[in-house]
Amino acid sequence: MDAETKTMTRKHGRHLRAPVLPDEEAAIKRNAAAAGLSVAAYLRNVGVG
Questions:
Q1: Rounded to whole angstroms, how far apart are CA atoms 47 and 49?
Q2: Domain boundaries, the chain
Q3: For the whole model, what pTM was predicted?
Q4: Could you give the maximum distance between any two Cα atoms of the chain, in Å?
Q5: What are the pLDDT digits (tens) for 1-49?
Q6: Which of 10, 22, 25, 32 is deepest in the core (most CB within 10 A)?
């Protein structure tokens, strides 16, 4: 994600929910932090590419 994308405000029309196990939640949060992203931004990047 470049600097211009990070500064844009996102207005979400939809929220997705996915059940995850506690260890999966921890891994997602850990990976997001390692990438310097919020969990939402991390999951968007992983899901959309």
A1: 6
A2: 18-49
A3: 0.72
A4: 34
A5: 555 555 566 776 788 999 999 999 999 999 999 999 999 999 999 999 8
A6: 32
